[in-house]
Specification:
Chain lengths: 159, 159
């Protein structure tokens, strides 16, 4: 394994570890528990679950891995704050979550180590030329941090 | 820049970005605000600030970067839950936080890209031989996730 392959493997492991924790947490909650707020007046667990699913789904085009599976989630879980629209039922969020994360992980493993250093698609060629750290690997780490951030909130309402 | 150097740079950037967010959040809080709980009955902001400082300080020996600056923080901010011991005053937590993170970042930049792939010191030689992903880079990503996790909680009490 080259150094670069090892580094990519470490980054994917880190994603997988946080994903497994989030998955375990969400999957063990009842429909009633999913309606709890993480703190008084804040997002409900079901909203955060859908929000993470939508953000992960958006990684397909950003990483150049094809089209989104569930673009319809954005309106509900990104553009609209919680408690302003009708959310999906928990079993549908769960289905999307599993589908999106399952496909993402298998796509991650199909990229070569050097492909992780290519520009991500929310960047122009010009900006990437100026700053080559704006690559797929940076997106992966950023989304792992994003998931960790919300996992820290989820724990407050689910333990 | 080699692929491996670029990957390490992306990982350090990710750490720095989360650190800057946390720093901005904590540094702008008054002493009174720092006594707020992130959710009813949960950790106070000052405790999380000290906890992150202690965990970051423990990275020096784990990464083979020398001795800890503030091992005395562990008793207060790791071994003891919040509200069971007398915490340090905010200005002292802030001083330790800045000192630890400033020194860590400068040490990060002194490591070569390949040194990031050497075993971390919480691992035995034997276990590292079996799994070379248990390296310094993995520690860096894990601690970045840990900081993101608590930052997600801090935001609930500070906005």
């Amino acid at each position: 394994m080259t150094s670069q392959q090892l580094s990519v493997k470490v980054a994917i492991n880190s994603w997988r570890l946080v994903l497994e924790r989030a998955n375990k947490k969400f999957s063990n909650l009842t429909e009633d528990q999913l309606l709890r707020e993480v703190a008084p007046g804040r997002n409900r667990l079901i909203y955060i679950w859908g929000h993470l699913t939508a953000i992960h789904d958006a990684m397909f085009p950003i990483l150049g891995l094809g089209s989104r599976l569930h673009p319809e989630l954005d309106n509900i879980f990104i553009s609209s704050p919680d408690k302003t629209t009708q959310l999906l039922p928990a079993h549908e969020v769960k289905k999307c979550w599993e589908e999106v994360n399952g496909k993402l992980l298998s796509q991650f493993e199909s990229l070569s180590a050097d492909e992780w250093l290519l520009r991500h698609h929310a960047m122009s060629e010009e900006d990437y030329a100026k700053d080559p750290t704006r690559n797929r690997l940076a997106v992966l780490l950023s989304r792992t941090n994003h998931m960790s951030y919300h996992l820290g909130q989820v724990i407050l309402a689910s333990t």
